[in-house]
Structure formats: structure tokens, C-alpha cells
């Protein structure tokens, strides 16, 4: 089992979600987030005063998938979230030791 | 970028051309209505018929007077409510949106507290000090506890509305004026100190200034025999200069907010400010057109001038911002409208719509310059620009009134006598300057003394921890936004 965390543009959230469902991913958690990569943020003006906003609105997806699904899920996310411009986001993959379904204590991939 | 600037310039040229052509070709229209009357002719002797006609004539006249009084009174009651709306939702939302979210209730509460506390004080003593008979500088104590303020009109103020209507209308001005000051010391003043400061300020700064400009025998009262005839239709000096200058003094005395100007302190909700500013614009019709104290043509003239002044300043502030920063912001547009409303306030009942347009255009650019540039040069922390908009805009408007005032709109110095500079009354700008100078001096000296006293008695600023925590929790034990539920 592996955990995929993806930080993407909010406008791409629906497309990514649909692509993941098409790829056969069943569960995911989505959080509204703020952050920046290398490009930093933008500038806002209030009554002539300049404020640099370096934490931009993003959406964070978290999903845990079986090992054989990892590449498919990554392709689904990167394919649907890509605009080609700066700020498209990142995908992080890490190992998961255990998964437990609370309803009936099932463990492992069957609990996903 | 070059293309965008040239588009903006072309747009501004178009606006300018429209204004100039409107100034040249614009006219005014007078519509008259003639009331019809029907006479009943019966077979009577001539004497009986004459007696009957005379009786009917007297009844008609009484009916017309009663209708006029009812019309004037209804407009003034509506105006009073409109002016209260400027404080209640208007200013509270405007200022509330401009602070950080931990201070929204504290900021709104300061305005709301004025609605309650100043009202009580007005009934007890400040109405009498402002509008009671006294000397050239302050009214007397004859009307304390509102003694003698009944339903009979006082002809020296307004012949067709009950004195109580006049009293409650003026009260709404007394409420919003100190509430405007709260914008300068937002996010850092103790609620208790604010209350004591405002009570003393209403007694020792607002009341004398209101008496000098609007009270019977006041030094600057152009209509009621003042020695220096300063024109202030709806409160350029009384409301905006006193509040704006006192705001600057308070901001300087109190010092900057912790972290200013290094920590970003952008408005937490421009949406709230937007709603508040729109309510201010609507309420301002009561503020300015109501200052005619009747429902006649002068009210119409002030209403129209108010609207054109606000719109023109919204255009010119936005244009200045567009040219300098590349984008016209919503906050800029509403700030411009408020600046225009401030500047047209003293002039509203004295100028033509096209003069109002010019006053607005000048005020929008001037106040933008004060807020975006001058504040930065001097480094004072006027949190919500109470001075930049009200002090600066009020001063500018009061002086421009001396130039643009027209006897065709309001022959306050007598029929056919020149009113403003452009009509040939070269002294009027000087009288306006004297009025402004008195308002500045009284505000600086009075506010400094009051701040010193309150500071020694109970302290002005909240503690450092309380300022970090925000006024909502530290002063009122509540939060405006509870994110957990």
C-alpha cells in the first residue's frame, strides 16, 4: 500500500477527481490548502499599500492505494492537473504500513 | 502594459471631455405645478359670496401650510433614520471589513457604542451646548435634559418641523462624527478609554464646533448672524475636519500598532467594507439633502450635488489607482466615493451639479494621494485612513465650497449677492480658511488635552498580549468568526 499526496490548482480539482475515479481509485480525502513552490506568490494593493501574498490557494488530495494502482493513480493526477504553467503542483508518494477499516476491523489492502 | 495604459488614458480623456461639455451645455430646469382650485358658486348675495370665498381661501392656506409641515417633517424623520444607518450598518461594516478578523467586533462595537452613549449624552447636555442659546463659541445650559425641546418649531433653525425632529436629526451627526475617529486608532485602544475619550470629546470639541457653525449666534454661522460667515452646509468642518484631525492626533499620540508597517495588515473582508460603503452613500442623501431642513428645492439640489460628487470621486480615485498600480481596485472605488461624499458635504446646498462634479474629481485624486503617498512619507499609523479621507477631504471640500458656492442655488447672503469666489465674492475662500483653521486648532488642542487626561486616568492602549489576541476577545470576550462550528 502506498499513500499519494498531491497538491494541485483548485480549478483542476474536479478533473483530477474524475480521472482518479475512471482509473479505479475508490477513496480519497480532499483538503483546501495554502502554499507555494518555487514561484512564490503575487502582489496585492490596498489603498496604495503593497502586500505580497506568498501562500496561494491550493487543493491537497490524499489517497492510499494498493501497490499495483500507484502508477495509474499518478498518471491520472498528473494528466488531469497539468496546465503547463508554473504552479501546477506536486505529487508525493510514501509507503503505508497498515490500513484498518473502523467499521469491521478489516486490515490491509482489503480495508482500502 | 503600454497598450493598457493608453486604453486607460483614452478612457480618462473621454470622461474629461464629457465633463467639460456637460459644464458648458448643462442647464437647469424648473418645473412648476399650479394647484387647481374649484369654487362653488351659489345663489347668494354678493357679501355672502365674498365672505364664503375668504373663508375658503383661509382654509386652503391652512391646508397648504399643514401639508408643507407634514411633508418637511416626514422627509426630516426619514433623513434622520438615513444618517443613523450611516453609522449603524454603514460605518460599522466599512470599518469592520478593513481591520483584521480578530478585531471586527471590537471595531463595530466602537461605532455601536457611539449610537448609545452619545444619544444619552445628547439628551443630558450636549444638545444644549451645541444648539442652545449662548455666546459665539458655545451654547448655554437652558436646554439640558431637553428642557424646552418640544413639538413646536423653533423658527431660527427650521420653521416647519418640530424642534424635536431637528434635535434628533442633529443627534445623528453627533453620533457619526466621533464614530469616524475610531478608524484612526482601530485595533489598539481600550474600550473603556475610548468611551471616556469620546464623552469628553463630544462635550469639549464637537459641541463648540457645532455651535460656532450651526448654533444661534455662532461665530461662523453664515445664516444666523455669525461674524465670520463660513459656509458649511452639512458638516465639512463640524463633522469631517474635526473627526479627521482628531483622528490624526489620536493615531500619533497612541503610536503605531505592534508590527506596523512590517507585518502585513490587509483588510480581512473587502466585501463587508463594500456593503458598508454603499450604505454610507445611500445614507449620505439624508446627511446632505436632509441638511436643507425641509423637503423643498434646496433638498433636491443638495441630493443631486451629493450624488455627482460621490460618483466623480469614485471615478477619479479609480483612475489614479489604475494609472499608478495597473488595476482599479474595489476598495479604491469605494474609498473614492466616500472621499467625494466627504468633500461635497460642506458644499452640497451651495453648488450646481457640475461644480459638484469638479469637487468630486479633485477630491478623489487628492485623498488617494494623501492615503497612498503622504501617509507613507510621514509613517503615521492612521489604521483605516480616517484622516486621509475625512480630515483631508473635509478640509479640501470646505475650501472648495468658498470657490464654487453659487447664489443661484442658495442666496444665503441675500438675493443677487455673490456667494462664492467664482461669482465675485473674493473673501469667501478666506472665510472658509478661517473656519477650517478654527476646526483644526480646536481639534488638535482639545483632543490632545483629553487624550492626556484619559491616558493618566486609565491608560489608552490595550496590553501587548491583548493587542496580539485581538480586541474581540480581550475587550468583549467574544469572537466575530468561530471557525470551529
From TrEMBL, chain A:
GO terms for biological process: regulation of nitrogen utilization. GO terms for molecular function: ATP binding; enzyme regulator activity. Keywords: Phosphoprotein. The keyword Phosphoprotein applies. The keyword Phosphoprotein applies. The modification O-UMP-tyrosine is found at residue 51. Belongs to the P(II) protein family. This is Nitrogen regulatory protein P-II. It comes from Edaphobacter acidisoli. The gene is glnB.
